[in-house]
Design goal:
The chain is an alpha/beta fold. The protein has 3 helices and 4 strands; from the N terminus they run E-H-E-H-E-H-E.
């Protein structure tokens, strides 16, 4: 399973004999293959019920002028997710 969005220059080299020999397959996942019109209302409701703790996925809250610094931190693996707050 390939998860995430690759950069344009990223490549994947796989020995095909390993895939065929083990009966494997490749699958990518773009935003978890969700259907926004179906899944976003469901996820919103789960959050409102306290059953989806989104705050656990937020490493920091930042202002707009801290966005570049946040991207640098993300690139170094120092944060999971930065949320931009607007006043």
């Amino acid at each position: 399973m390939l998860v995430g969005v690759p950069t344009p220059e990223m490549e994947l080299n796989v020995p095909l004999l390993d895939v065929f020999g083990r009966g494997g397959k490749l699958k990518s996942s773009w935003y978890g293959d969700c259907l926004p019109e179906r899944d976003f209302p469901m996820l919103t409701e789960l959050y409102k019920q306290g059953r989806l703790p989104l705050e656990k996925f937020v490493s920091e809250r930042i202002t707009v002028d801290q966005v570049e610094e946040a991207f640098d931190k993300m690139g170094r693996g120092e944060v999971l997710r930065s949320v931009v707050e607007f006043s």
